[in-house]
Amino acid sequence: MSDQETLLKVTNLKKYFPIRRGVFRSVVGHVKAVDGVSFEIKRGETLGLVGESGCGKSTTGRTVLQLLDPTEGSVVFDGQDLAKMSSEQLRLMRNRMQIIFQDPYSSLNPRMTVQGILTEPLEIHGIGSRADRAGRIAELLETVGLNANMINRYPHEFSGGQRQRIGIARALATNPDFIVADEPISALDVSIQAQIVNLMDDLKEKLGLTYLFIAHDLSMVRYMSDRVAVMYLGRIVELGDRDDVYDRSLHPYTQALVSANPVPDPDLEAVRDSIILEGDVPNPANPPSGCNFHPRCRFTTDICTTDDPVLRNLGTMQEHWVACHHAEQFI
Q1: I want to staple 261 with a disulfide (CB 3.0 to 4.6 A). Which of 173, 218, 250, 267 is the partner?
Q2: What tens digit of pLDDT does each residue of 299-330 get?
Q3: In this predicted model, what pLDDT tens digit does every residue of 230-285 receive, in sequence order?
Q4: Alpha-carbon dihedral angle through residues 170, 159, 134, 201, given to the nearest 10 degrees
Q5: Are 137 and 143 in contact (CB under 8 A)?
Q6: Residue 247 gets which letter from DSSP?
Q7: Using CA atoms, how far apart are residues 49 and 40, in angstroms rounded to an integer?
Q8: CB-CB contact of 275 with 255 (8 Å)
Q9: What angle do CA 13, 15, 19 make, to 5 degrees?
Q10: Pairing state between β 72-77 and 46-50
Q11: What radius of gyration, in Å, describes the C-alpha atoms of the chain?
């Protein structure tokens, strides 16, 4: 991975949502949904982003694509800082960056046919003539495993898995380099999830795509990803090679997540220790002092309550970043 070109570089990304109260809607605080996130994604790589619900994964993905304006930080895509672009420059860049939404039921316009849904991005970006677009739509449907004679149907006539295939086809319409997959399988039946993940994996190889794959299903993330970033309360607490992060976790939160993930071997599952986290995720509007994870961590010491741990590389053969004061004891 080290000699691959960096396609996306995110540095100190923050997204704070104001809390307003009173008659005059005065700002009395902020929800720190994303609080200083940094990572890189190489061209042709899949970075998995995992964590509990509400930790800021989806907000990170949408802020990277500038669907939400960042509060602070930079997002450099193929050498260009998206945050410094004008709205017109950003519009022209959008054909190279797309998103697959979580819910295939609400992300498709129920009043538009499949043909309309897939034609829209081509028209917006001025891609092809009318005849060219008809051929492109048929090609897209075939690429995602749907029949071209379905173009005049409406979303309600399809199953959840088929709708998500339409969503994937829409994301592919402009021939993008980079796709944010925002929990693309969480709203689907388990029997369909593997089909969608395999389709995305095949498309990555066939089209040379780069993914930010957001999910809370650790087994799917391990299957799809080259590297994995673990988020907790708006921050990345561990980042490294997929197998390193899963098999040699250096952060107590990652260890708890991995231990909660069931394994298919019943004998191994019977003797495996599960780490039960105490308490609830803190309020992102009022995060704890020091390490965000310290109220729930079994290794907490005084320094954890006062000093915010920095993300540091403790890998030997390859990079393995972790934000924990006591990570060395897990090496």
Answers
A1: 218
A2: 999 999 999 999 999 998 899 999 999 999 99
A3: 999 999 999 999 999 999 999 999 999 998 877 776 767 666 777 888 888 889 99
A4: 50
A5: no
A6: H
A7: 12
A8: yes
A9: 155
A10: unpaired
A11: 21
